[in-house]
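pinned: reference chain
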Amino acid sequence: MSTILLVDDEPELLDLYTEILELMDHRVLRAHDGREALEIAHERRPDLVVTDWQMPRMSGVELCQRLVQDEELHDVPIIMHSAATDPHAPGVKAFLSKCSELSEFEEVVNRTLTDSGVCPQGPPPGPYLDELSRAARETLWDAEHACSMGP
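pinned: its structure tokens
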């Protein structure tokens, strides 16, 4: 079982991605901003960090910079996700749009863990729509609807 630090200031998306990662049989640590994530990363040393770009107190880009510069955490792979375009943060192994399909999220997580030497966990790629809670399905629908509407 891999430990993934998930960082997002939107509670609904934090809940959705947590549920998906847990269905993939990963242990999930949660943070609401970069500062909280950095503290948790030092305490728990995750196998992977999945972070949002824009957040209060410390952005995802600044979090990536701090992780890359940290002697203990510089080798932890990072996936950045955002509603904006790829911000090209240091240390980011993969970028995912928040408009990505669940299957792409699962694939990128597994590929990043495999590439970093941590074996992917859990059942074969989903989607696990039937297993998601009602709240998670509603968040997913809202996100897909917002993405289809454009900026």
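why pinned: The CA atoms of residues 31 and 40 lie 8 Å apart. The chain has a mean pLDDT of 83.
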